[in-house]
Each structure stands twice: as structure tokens, then as C-alpha cells.
Design brief:
The structure holds two protein chains of two kinds. Chain A has eleven helices and 14 strands. By secondary structure, chain A is an alpha/beta fold. In chain A, the strands form three sheets. Chain A has a six-stranded mixed sheet with strand order 6-7-8-3-9-10, sandwiched between helices. A four-stranded antiparallel sheet of chain A has the order 2-1-4-5, with helices on one face. A four-stranded antiparallel sheet of chain A has the order 12-13-11-14. In chain A, strand 4 and strand 5 form a beta hairpin. Chain B is mainly alpha-helical. Chain B is about 75% helix and about 0% strand. In chain B, helix 5 packs antiparallel against helix 9 and helix 6 packs parallel to helix 9. The chains are: A alpha/beta, B mainly alpha. At the A-B interface, helix 2 and helix 3 of A face helix 1 and helix 4 of B.
């Protein structure tokens, strides 16, 4: 059973639309939801929780329709947009006291452990926390009410490299405990470090949904010296762009030999290079 | 509901709401347009909703295991409690003012039973005009307050004008209690019913508006 199953999600705005978004999340896996700014990541996540109303589509958490089991489902998930960005001047102690009342399964012992693990001081306010600590506090709240699925919208935005690494370690640890994590990001290097699967959205459409390894294995980067694109390579290139030493494009792994024969230097693709070239298409 | 109401008072309520409750004491000012006292209640509601926008209260609440309609219901319950507290706290000051050995309020209505009925109607109109605008777009709190303030001030001007111009208001309603008790009790009862009807209508429309709103 999928932790989350989305089928045919559509939402139309005057200048943008989500078109037939479908994907599913496997239990205990970390899934990166990638796409450039404005690709539809946040709209998709908000649609899942009915914060924006989809025009059509089926959304099931833990095999149950969200519209029919909203309260039960909300108790089993944690949604974090950035970090804790509400009530910035109230003490964490007060926010926790108010929030915990809503969850019959609130585990105070677990909460205390997470405070200690994340080195959070309850006497502080969200405004006094670093961006990384805000995310950790949000995670502590979600985990203490027993969230099985964590959905995080851009949790690593604005973090320095050390804090990002630190947070990714936390995600890996949680995944090891069986938690399912979906996090949107445009910082693709985060996913190289911890994601099992990726969902790639471009212009409101899902471009890819598969394992990260499988996705990366299906592409190579072909780099060419300055000059006209060899005719036999032109049709192979996906998202050709200029580089410092010439130009590059993405090729399907099955076309790597042909690109080599056309004079390209072929190298493995990372998520960053795949996305940069894909967005050029 | 109990938990959301706790959230309203512990997190969402603007501190000035408590300060404004103390302004019920304005009813002992010898001569004053006493309706203004309850305008401050609306100001507290405005500050709380404005603070909610700045503190992302709607977003925080929407993430909790509650439905959107519950969020609206809790806000209405909070506001009605605030308004009821303001009115109840005003009662002893109204009695105190009536006991003063001096003529009644020379500016407008005396602080009597009819005045409380007319104030209830005013608060009902505030609730309807404020929340009809607010829950269509929770980010436009200023617009909601501009509309509701206009409604409130027009009401005050009309009510006080009636007090001077209409014999029924001037000679029966604007008198010390217990004179013309029957008429005043009727106004009090009608005011209470109007408050409940207007607030109930505001709630139903607000719940529908907020449900349809994309956050």
C-alpha cells in the first residue's frame, strides 16, 4: 500500500495550471520533489491537504481519501512549509502546549527526546531560532504526534551547507526509523545525498517519477568543444546550453555511444545537470 | 472546538483585547456617546485578525487536525465571548452611572437597558460586515475593518440622531431605569435576537467563504 497516492490532480489558475499530476510514495522512503521555482511544487503540496482546492484528481493517504478522513489523516502526517514560521514571538513552550492538545496520541517523552536530540531550547521563540532549528522544531512537533509521513516544502532553503548536511542526516535517520519523507526542493544536491526516489515537475506537469539511481542512470552529459553542433549529435541532445569550454547537452544513456562517436566528452549525469538541461528544453 | 478556543485565547488573541475590555468603564463618563465603548470591541477583533495574518495563524490552524469550518467557528466563539464580556463588564458601570446624583447623559443615550439592546444590534452589524469581508480574503483585514467601522459609525450617528429626533427614543428609551421598563426590555430582547441572527448569518456565510478560499 502506498503512503500517498495521487492520481490526475489538476488545478487551473489564470496564468498557471497543474496538469494531471500523478505519483505515489512508498513507505519508509525519502522522495525529493524537484522543479524550478514556480514549477508547481508548493501548489501540489497545498492541493494534497486541500489548502488549495484541486479542480479534479484523487488523493489518498494510507489508502484513504483525504476528503473523507481529513482529521485522521492530518494526525498521521506532518506538513512543514520552510520551518516554523508562525507565531514567531511566542515561546516554543507555549506553541507546543497549545499544539499538543490537538493530538490524542501526543508522546511527551518523545517530544522531550527530540528537544534534546535537536538541542532545542523551549524558552526561545521561533524568531530566535536559526532556519535549520526552525525546521527541527517543526519536525519535533510532527514526530511527537506520531506522524508517519513528513511533507516538507523547501526545508533546506536558506540553510548554510553545514546546516543542510545536518538536516539531511536527520532525514536519513528518520527514514531508517520507517518514516516516509517527501520534500520539495530546488537544491538538487540535497537529493543526491539522501533521496531514494524523485518526482520531477516542470511547468505543472510531472516529468519523471522513479528511483533517483534509475533516473540518473538513464542520462549522460555530452560536452562539445566550441563550434557548430555536429549534425549527427544535434538530434540526440536534450536541452543544449553553452558552457565555459563550449556547450553541453543531455543524452539518453542508450545514445551515449553515438554522442561519443560525434566527438563529445560523455560523463555521468547528476541531478543538477539533468535539471539544468531539462529546463532548457 | 475546546482546543481551538484555547488556541484563540493563548496564541491568537491580541493583548489589547483585554485592555479594551477595561474600557467598559467608559460608561461612568457623565456625558459621552456610550456606543463608542463597544466600537473598541471591534477594534480588538480587528487587531486579533491582523495579528493572525502577521503570525500566519490561518496557516498554523489549517495544519492542525481540524476542518476549515472549525477554524471559523472557533474565531466566532472567541469574538462572541469577547463581546459578551465587554457587555457584562459594562453593566456595573452603567448602574453606577445611573446612581450618580446628576442628570442623565446629555450627549446621547443613557446607559440603560435599551442602550444595551441597541448596542447588541450594533455588535451584530459589526460581526456581519467585518466577517463577510474578512473570510473572503483573510489577508485583507484592513478592508474588513474599514467596511465594518463605516457601518458601526453610521449606526452610532443614526442611533444618537434618533435619540434627539424621535419622541419614542427621546421620551421613553433615553430615560433612567426602571422608567418605561416594558419598552426598554422589548428593545433589549429585540437587540439580543438581532445580534444572534446577524452573527449566525455572518458565521454561515463566513464558513462558506472560507471553505472556498484557496490558502
Amino acid at each position: 500500500m502506498s503512503v500517498l497516492n495521487v492520481e490526475g490532480l489538476c488545478k487551473r489558475y489564470p496564468a498557471f495550471r497543474l496538469a494531471d499530476v500523478s505519483f505515489s510514495l512508498g513507505e519508509g522512503r525519502i522522495t525529493g520533489f524537484i522543479g524550478r521555482n514556480g514549477a508547481g511544487k508548493t501548489t501540489t503540496l497545498k492541493s494534497l491537504l486541500n489548502l488549495v482546492h484541486p479542480d479534479s484528481g484523487k488523493i489518498e493517504f494510507f489508502g484513504e481519501r483525504f476528503a473523507e478522513r481529513e482529521l485522521d489523516i492530518k494526525r498521521r502526517i506532518g506538513f512543514v512549509s520552510g520551518g516554523v514560521n508562525y507565531y514567531p514571538q511566542k515561546k516554543l513552550k507555549l506553541i507546543t502546549a497549545v499544539t499538543s492538545r490537538f493530538y490524542s496520541g501526543w508522546d511527551e517523552g518523545a517530544y522531550r527526546r527530540y528537544l534534546e536530540t535537536f538541542a532545542l531550547d523551549e524558552e526561545k521563540t521561533p524568531a530566535a531560532l536559526s532556519e535549520g532549528m526552525k525546521v527541527k522544531y517543526a519536525l519535533a512537533l510532527a514526530l511527537s504526534h506520531g506522524a508517519e509521513l513528513l511533507m516538507l516544502d523547501e526545508p533546506t532553503s536558506g540553510l548554510d551547507p553545514v546546516s543542510r548536511e545536518d538536516l539531511l542526516d536527520v532525514f536519513l535517520g528518520l527514514s531508517g526509523e520507517g518514516k516516509t519523507i517527501l520534500f520539495s526542493t530546488h537544491i538538487t544536491s540535497d537529493l543526491d545525498k539522501c533521496a531514494d526516489d524523485i518526482i520531477y515537475i516542470k511547468g505543472g506537469r510531472i516529468l519523471a517519477e522513479e528511483s533517483l539511481k534509475g533516473y540518473l542512470a538513464s542520462y549522460k552529459v555530452a560536452a562539445f568543444e566550441p563550434g557548430p553542433v555536429p549534425e549527427r549529435a544535434a538530434s540526440l541532445l536534450i536541452g543544449c546550453k553553452s558552457t565555459k569550454g563550449g556547450y553541453s547537452g543531455l543524452v539518453k544513456s542508450s545514445d551515449a555511444e553515438k554522442a561519443l562517436a560525434a566527438g563529445a566528452k560523455v560523463s555521468d549525469a547528476d541531478l543538477d545537470s539533468v535539471m539544468v538541461h531539462m529546463e532548457k528544453e | 472546538m475546546k482546543n481551538l478556543l484555547a488556541k484563540e485565547f493563548r496564541l491568537a488573541m491580541h493583548p489589547t483585547a483585554l485592555l479594551f475590555l477595561a474600557l467598559s468603564a467608559m460608561l461612568i463618563i457623565p456625558n459621552y456617546p456610550y456606543y463608542v465603548t463597544f466600537f473598541y470591541t471591534g477594534l480588538a477583533v480587528f487587531f486579533t485578525c491582523l495579528g493572525g495574518r502577521e503570525n500566519r495563524d490561518i496557516y498554523y490552524s489549517a495544519m492542525l487536525p481540524v476542518r476549515k469550518v472549525d477554524i471559523v467557528r472557533a474565531r466566532f466563539a472567541f469574538v462572541v465571548i469577547l463581546e459578551a464580556a465587554q457587555l457584562l463588564l459594562a453593566v456595573p458601570f452603567a448602574l453606577l452611572r445611573q446612581s450618580f446624583p446628576m442628570p442623565g447623559n446629555q450627549v446621547g443615550m443613557d446607559a440603560n437597558l435599551a442602550f444595551f439592546g441597541l448596542s447588541l444590534l450594533m455588535l451584530g452589524l459589526f460581526n456581519l460586515s467585518f466577517f463577510r469581508v474578512y473570510y473572503r480574503d483573510v489577508n485583507k483585514v484592513g478592508k474588513a475593518f474599514a467596511v465594518s467601522s463605516t457601518v458601526t459609525w453610521i449606526y452610532i450617528v443614526v442611533a444618537e440622531a434618533c435619540d434627539h429626533a424621535l419622541p419614542f427614543f427621546r421620551d421613553e428609551l433615553d430615560t433612567p431605569d426602571p422608567a418605561h421598563l416594558g419598552a426598554k426590555l422589548a428593545v433589549l430582547g429585540a437587540g439580543l435576537l438581532a445580534f444572534l441572527a446577524l452573527t449566525g448569518l455572518a458565521y454561515r456565510r463566513a464558513a462558506a467563504d472560507f471553505e472556498a478560499l484557496d490558502l
